[in-house]
Structure formats: structure tokens, C-alpha cells
Structure prediction request, 504 residues.
Amino acid sequence: MPYDPSAFPPFAVTVDLVVLTVRRHALCALAVRRGEPPFQGRWALPGGFVRADEDLAQAAARELAEETGLRAHDPSTPAQDNGAHLEQLATYGDPKRDPRMRVVSVAHLALAPDLPAPRAGGDASNARWAPVEELLQQGGYGRDGEPVAPLAFDHAQILADGVERARSKIEYSSLATAFCPTEFTVGELRRVYEAVWGVALDPRNFHRKVTGTPGFLVPTGGTTTRQGGRPAQLFRAGGATLLNPPMLRPEV
Amino acid sequence: MPYDPSAFPPFAVTVDLVVLTVRRHALCALAVRRGEPPFQGRWALPGGFVRADEDLAQAAARELAEETGLRAHDPSTPAQDNGAHLEQLATYGDPKRDPRMRVVSVAHLALAPDLPAPRAGGDASNARWAPVEELLQQGGYGRDGEPVAPLAFDHAQILADGVERARSKIEYSSLATAFCPTEFTVGELRRVYEAVWGVALDPRNFHRKVTGTPGFLVPTGGTTTRQGGRPAQLFRAGGATLLNPPMLRPEV
DNA sequence: ATCATAGTCGTCTTCCTGACGATAAACACT
DNA sequence: AGTGTTTATCGTCAGGAAGACGACTATGAT
Prediction:
């Protein structure tokens, strides 16, 4: 078939972000309140249109910076600075996912250490970190007893897919360090795994596993006592990106 | 920002397919010859525009049927019929990836058993199964001494990503059975792993592993001798989709 | 001083894997 | 019929990794 510019329907292309962090022992995602219809007033994932001259990864990094101030580091340059990890998640293109028009959204997954405070266009009341279970429970009641509306569009599905990606990826990669600040302790890293997986891990076996995996952790020499108890060694993320053998997620 | 239909640039959205199969002990991908510019005469991955009323998965299934005659089975209805496995791979949206216009391509990965013959719009000379190493080597010479042109667009990258996805996914899932016909032997399944990974596996340990994993293989009672040697038991794919513990890919 | 908390080192058992010997059942020869 | 070849299948053994859990250490709180 010859090339015919009228042969294809026009689409709008957006990027949506699943930004995850660990706060107070819970896996949290960034949500923004929608200011206009459709779904006005409802919570949604941050995102926006891809510009005409922009790559998808660039658009995702730009949105991430606009919403959180985080720089994304290039995936080819792993965890050195305290920028966020950013990767493409999946693409959602149901014809009816946006009632206004045909929109294809390329969702991205970002993992960040605990941050001071979200900012959505300068208005803090329109952005928040919320535990993912709270955002995913449809039509229930939140911790404060307020009714919880489901996320706008198909964002509950996107968030669920992003959480599942994070849960499986920390098994066989060193990605859990993306949730930690530059220097962290073994206990802090363990609490990341526990929050993301929602399980309790044996501190002794965990310590043996992570310190025994070459390239995973690099001791910085310092110690800290910010968690109480005996001072703990401080580590930085090592160069290894793949864990072999993987960290095993407990059954059930 | 209020909704403004002129606020976003229009995109064309396509699906491209990485269709993999195992033929003659080699991992092969389906390639089609381009009939029009750009890249006229070069080999490319099959694909096409997403229609206005079509979901992305529907578009991919339609293209797969057009190119190969294969029905894709729904991911929620695993390996029963001899349809192909189809899943979304990744999305490619570099502004310059298509010189004509802004095209975002949602690549999909399909795994199929060895098929009679490809058909691309009825013209067999414009479609072929080629070993992935042959398609991925840039500017070398093929088995027959002819110069090999690299794949059109960014399809070499897409193919490489698809192959990598397949290689890693057969580690921890029962997806390797998607390369096999409905009934197959342990040896045939082993040859799938060997072709996809490009390694030799110990037949005895492989046999112990796959027959010892509950839900992976279901004996059908029959035997076959189509490989020569002692008759082998026939199996069908069991209901299990996740392999735990995974099949280990040898180092090197 | 005592307790609570968190970190770190060991031990033991169990399971899984890799290496590899041995047997079984077909076919192709001579 | 006998012999060799090929593929399938069962068994054995050693090494490594993980789960369960005891023991000890170093802080702060009471």
C-alpha cells in the first residue's frame, strides 16, 4: 500500500508517571488532583502531553521534574547521584480511556527516595504522597474515614502495573537502592523491601544476603544511629545492577 | 491548564511485531520486505497503523493474523489452543525514528511454534523467517554470502529488546511452551531453551527440573519417536505460568 | 543498673543445582 | 542376530544458598 498521510487517524500521546517512594514503612505513590474535567477534583497520576520535538523518555523526565523537582538519571548511568530511577512501564491505548479524544499514554515508572514535599505547579494541596493500597482500593474509605474515589481514567490499572513492576524488579536487581538516600544502612534497605513487598524479612538473613552479594553494597566507612539501637554501618549502592541469585520474595 | 484541543501535537500510532519462533535449532524472527519508501526494499518488522476504534492489543492481534494467520490467545487464557502468545513489549517514540512524520510505535512480542510458511499479503517472497543474529548483525554478510542491510527504522533495537525479553522471560515463566506445538517432548522443550539462550543444557538435569516442577508439564500418555532414539513421553503445557524456582540460565 | 532496640556474626538443616554414571528403547547398519 | 548410535530417563553425590533461630554487641531510654 502506498503512503497516504490521510490513512492513519491522529492520536494524542501523553506520558503518565507512577512515582513511588517509601514513607513511614509504606509504599506510596504521587497523586495529583485534577483541576479540570473530565474527572475534575479526582486524584490522578501526574502526566502530560508529549511535545512535538520530544522523545518519550525526555517527556517523562520533564514531567517528573515539574512535579517533584527530581532529576532522572539516565538508565545507562546507574545510581550515582540522588536522582530518581526512571523507566518506561507500559502503554495504554483503549479507545475509550479518555472521553474527550483518542489518547495513548506511555506510562513510566519512577522510584525515588523519601522527599521533602510534593509540589504540583506550586500548589501543594493538589499533590500528595498516598499509600498505594489507599489509592488502589476502589470506593472504600481512607484512613481518615473520608470516602475514597477511584483514580481518574485507567490510572488505577497503571498504578497497579507499576507497583507490580517494582515488586518484581527489586527481586532480581539492585533497584531497591533507588528508594534510599545516597548513604543508607542495611536496615533501611531491608525496610524498603518490607514496605514494597508488604512482608517481614529476617534481619539476619537479609544482612547476610545483601552484604554477601558482590557489588551490591559498598561500605562508606561511616556509621549512623538514626534508627536507634546499635550504630549501623553506612553503605552506598555498588555497581552491580543484577542480583544473581535474586532476593527471594517470601511466599504468600 | 484548561483543555485545549490545539494544545497537543498529533501523532501517528503504529504497532510493530517481534514474532519469534524456533526453527532448525535457531531462534528466528519474522521479517517483511518494505515495498515503499522510506527504506524501500529493506527488511523490517511487520506492523501497521492502529485504527481509530481499536485497542493496542487488538491492533497487534490483527497484524499478527494478517502476517501469519496465527490467532493470538488472550493473555488471561493461557496456552490451551495452538494460538500464539502475544504481549506488549515497549513503545518507541523518538521524534526522528520515521522521517515522514511523528510516529509512536507500540511494539509487541509474539511467540509461536514453528509454522508452515510466512505469508505477507499473499506474497511469500516479501516475508521470511530469519535467525535473529542474522537480522541483528549490522552491515555484515548473511549465510549465503549476500550483504545484509540492517533492519529499517529502529527495528533492530526493537528486535533486540524483544529477544532479550523472551530470553529472560522463559527463565521464570512457562513461556517456552509457547514455542512448542500442543504436544511436545521434554527434549523438544529443551531444544527451545537451547535455541533461545544459545547454550547447551544437560538433558538429565533439564528433565529432572521440568518434570519436577508442579503444573509445568502434564503428560498426555502418548509417546513419540520423531526425534529418533528411544521414544519420549508427550506432554502438554500445564496450568502453571510462573516457575518457582526459576530455570537457571547458565553463566558465560 | 536495667531494659528496649537495632545491628551483626554463627550454626544447622533443607532444598536445589551442576556434574556425571548407568540403563532403556528405538533405529541403522553389517 | 549383533553392534553401534541416538535419545530418553533414572540415580547418585557434592557444593551452595536460604530459612530458622541462637548469641552477642552497642547504643539510648528509664
